[in-house]
Amino acid sequence: GKENVDSRHGRGRGGETTRFHTVNVAQPVRFSRKCPTGWHHYEGTASCYRVYLNGENYWDAVQTCQRVNGSLATFTADQELRFILAQEWDLEEKTFVRKDQRRFWVGYQYVITNRNHSLEGHWEVAYKGSSEVFLPPDPIFGTAMSEKENVLCAQLQCFHFPTLRHHGLHSWYAENCYEKSSFLCKRSQTCVDIKDNIVDEGYYFTPKGNDPCLSCTCHNGEPEMCVAALCERPQGCQQYRKDPKECCKFTCLDP
């Protein structure tokens, strides 16, 4: 209840009326952080996810994810996959598959072990980073396959229509790794300051939220050990507005 605190009265000792001023009271802060702009946060894995629409082959997609301190997404449990399927990703009209079906490179590879009457093999995590990960079921094989390829790359197909998304309908494809496709990156949650800059571990920063006078230390993607500066109201000004992103900066609204 920090809104309109200035106009709220309370009874002190002896029945006298006390007026409280927000200017000199540290307010509770609800942090709006953990992922940079354009990324979706999932609390269950403390991770951020983003779909990149520029069509890249699997190996180029891997490098793009690494440049943003992430990797192609793998999933630790069904709940994480359901979270991904339920998201309405910010997709443009430019896409490499039908509008109602979207495919993304993800961090698995299908290793072919037998090429007799049908392709036999198994899924592997492309880049070992997790001790225990969810592995996909048997895939649908893509059309652009070469007989010389013994490793295919994973595409997760999800659906654009909300009804299909929220029912978790999806498919797994094993595709030629040099095909171009959108892709899904995953990275650990991070500290993001009030101006949407990413903050490195151990550094001081002001978290996104309602208090530009807060200074915290970034630890494991969370703001910790926070201290707040309290500002005096501006002198000689009756009506004023606090700057939402600059500490102790005011705009006088007097005529």
UniProtKB/TrEMBL annotation:
Pfam families: Lectin_C
Domain C-type lectin: 44-186
Signal peptide: none
GO cellular component: membrane
Superkingdom as given in the UniProt entry: Eukaryota
Gene3D superfamilies attached to this UniProt entry: Mannose-Binding Protein A, subunit A (3.10.100.10)
Protein name: IDD protein
